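Hi R.,

Here's the input for the guanosine-5'-diphosphate complex you asked about:
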Amino acid sequence: MPALVLLGAQWGDEGKGKATDLLGGSVDYVVRYQGGNNAGHTVVVGDQKYALHLLPSGILSPGCTPVIGNGVVVDPSVLLSELSGLDERGVDTSKLLISGNAHLITPYHTTLDKVSERFLGKRKIGTTGRGIGPAYADKINRVGIRVQDLFDESILRQKVEAALDNKNQVLAKLYNRRAIAADQVVEELLGYADPLSGYVADTTLLLNNAIDQGQVVLFEGGQGTLLDVDHGTYPFVTSSNPTAGGACTGTGVGPTKINRVIGILKAYTTRVGAGPFPTELLDEDGEKLRTIGGERGVTTGRDRRCGWFDAVIARYATRVNGLTDFFLTKLDVLTGWERIPVCVAYEIDGKRVEELPYSQTDFHHAKPIYETLPGWSEDITQAKTFDELPKNAQKYVQALEEMSGAPISAIGVGPGRDETIQINSFL
Ligand code: GDP
Ligand code: IMO
Ligand code: MG
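And here is the predicted structure with guanosine-5'-diphosphate in place:
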C-alpha cells in the first residue's frame, strides 16, 4: 500500500491532524500538498498538545520524513517560527523537505488579504487573513515568488519589483494604503535563504522514487472538500484544491500511484467563516456542540459554526474524491444527546433532493430533511473495539456509513492518538 491521501470531507477541522499523526508511525513520508498556514491541525500526543499550521503532522513521528509539496504556499516567517517552536520542545525537525517550486507568501500577500476582506465589508469571505488567496492568485497570474527564488538575488529582485509595480497601484489607489517598498521585501526574503537552504529538495523526484521502492507515502490535506476552489461552496472557499486531485498536482505524483483516499469526517458538522451551511444550529444544541467539541479555530481563535451531520455532503465527498474509506471523528462529542438528527436529503423549492445541488442558489435555499437516531449516554472514550460501543452508538455509525457511500474504517472517541477504534487497517 505505497500511497494514500488523507483529506477533509466537510469544511475543514475534521481531525486530519490527529488521523495523520496516528498513521505517521507507520509511514515513511507525510506530504502537505496544498494550502498554507491557514490550516490549524491539533495533535495530542500523551499529555502534549501541538498546534501545527504549515508543517505536515508527520513531523511528530520520528521515523517519518515530512514534506511540503509544490502545491503549498509557504510563509517563510511562519515556517521558521513553527520549526523553532518544535525544536524548543525537543521535536526533531531536521528531516523536513520543501519543494523549491512551492510559492511564497510575502508580506504584501498578507496585507492584500486583510485589506480586500475589509473592503468587501458584509460580503467578506471570512478568510484567515494569512495571505493565502493573494499568493495563489499571483501563482496563477504567473507573478508569484517561489522558494527557489530565494537563492538568486537578481531574479528575486526582478520578480518582487514586477509584482509590486501592480500591487502598489492597487494598495494606494484602491485601498488608500501606503505603497510597499520592494527593497524592504527583498531584504526580508533574502534573510530566509540561509535558514531554509538545507530543507529545499526535488520533492517530486524523491516521492516518486520512494513509491517505486515500496515506501509508504501519506498525502495530508489541509482544509476540506467543501472549501475546495473547484468543488466547494464557491466563492466561500479557500484558494486551492484540498480534494484528492490536489494531491497529484500539489506533489507531482500521478493518480495511478495512489491506492487509497481516506475522508476524515466529523460525526457532526462545523464551518469557520462565511458561506452556506444547511444544517447549522443557531440554538442551544449548536452551543452545546461547540462547547463539548471544543469548536474554536486553531489558527484564528474564531468560534466554529456547528450543526448536525449532513449525509448529502458526505456522499458528495465520496464522489468528488473517490473515497475508499472514512475516518469518523469526534463520536464521543455526541454522547448525552437523547436523540440525534442526521440530515439525509435537502428540500429545495418543495422538492426532495438527495445529491448536493450544483447551483449555488439552490444550495443557499436547501433546507435539511432530518432522520432522527436514538442517542446514548454511556462514556465511550475508553472503547477500543466497535463491539465495546453502546448499541445506539453502533447504530449511529452504521447509519452514517450507509448514507455516506464508503466504509467507516476508524472511529475517533477522543483527541489522543490511542482514543481510536480501528475497524479496517489503512495500510
Ligand atoms: P484538522 O484541522 O482537521 O486537523 O482539525 P482541528 O485540529 O482543527 O480540529 C479537530 C479538533 O478535534 C482538535 O482539537 C483535535 O484534537 C480534536 N479531535 C480529533 N479527533 C477527535 C475525537 O475523535 N474526539 C474528540 N473529542 N476530539 C477529537
Ligand atoms: P484546516 O486545515 C477550517 C476557511 C476560512 C475561510 C475560507 C477562506 O485546519 O481544516 P483562506 O484564509 O483559506 O483564504 O480562507 O476557508 N478555512 C478553514 N476553515 N479549517 C481550515 O483549515 C481552514 N482554512 C481555511 O475560515 O472561510
Ligand atoms: Mg483545523
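One thing worth noting: The chain has a mean pLDDT of 97.

Cheers,
M.
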